[in-house]
């Protein structure tokens, strides 16, 4: 007795990307029936929180589907309708020498990992092959003091990738990296000066290749911010000390935060 083909669809709609692949491998008929089960997904959301790694169909034709973070490059290749990629990293370890070393997993990367998050995300895929509308990368690092940062420097790995690979892409790219420090100490001055010098050097280089740049310093607030715009890329990096008006979302922001149920 054969199972109704519609039942395969119902079962598959509740499976993760990996479990769906396993389900399709059970029998050729299931594989044929579910051959196009990823066709409707047009958004990929990636995070260092496993529960926040999912693909979705913004038109509501398919249920959101979870996936394992290291399969993101495979999904990017597989999703023929993919239009939007959002990457959010919050649990970032910049305390040890490994923060500047190559990493196997994207969730172990830092803004100082060679190639940055974007190189790891694309996994050898040329951005020119993709029909995206938007790529967003948000990296928020919170440290207690600058002593918790192995090397406070201007992060340029994702900036370099963006300038080399994404400027002429057919989609818009937004990259935002921030470091928020909870404590202000008298010994911070040398590290901050080193950071400022790195930011100025990065902006000088970007100016030389034709990018529009902006540099903001607010000494009283301990806030520095740099922005680079070229082609379809907008990159920003900010360093600041903890300030509730900057770090904590307002009630209006919380109301606007989307809720995704999987």
TrEMBL record:
Q: What is the lineage of its organism?
A: Eukaryota, Metazoa, Ecdysozoa, Nematoda, Chromadorea
The name of this protein is Uncharacterized protein
Q: Which organism is it from?
A: Caenorhabditis japonica
